[in-house]
């Protein structure tokens, strides 16, 4: 399992193959920092690639480079044009890929990105960030299951990380 956190980083890491800080909520229309913590898929396998798909409504994504890892920002068209501080924005980063690293089976690491949550996103909804974690031999864990209406992430074996949007105060 995997989760995301805002820039306040309130809680310690939760255990799992891919995890994050359990404070999974932010106000809609804000900047947010997302953190994915990854450990290896199996005791005898290293992780060498982490892919994060960016959901609709999250724009102006800026990933943090990691020493020893290649950073790829896959760009594409957004589902629609968004207002980003008065500038119409219709394309940008749609996926972030960290590759070429070597996360050994007795280590964990964090992969960080920042983005802007657009005004189209509604409070009391959850954004899902599908993630694929890969090993050099081609083995992969696909944290991509998005809960159907009426279900929750715990109902799935490999749920996509979710970020709950809460109303502005």
TrEMBL record:
Residues 1-25 are annotated as: Disordered. Residues 42-165 form the YncI copper-binding domain. InterPro entries: YcnI-copper_dom, YcnI-like_sf. It comes from the Bacteria. This is Uncharacterized protein YcnI.
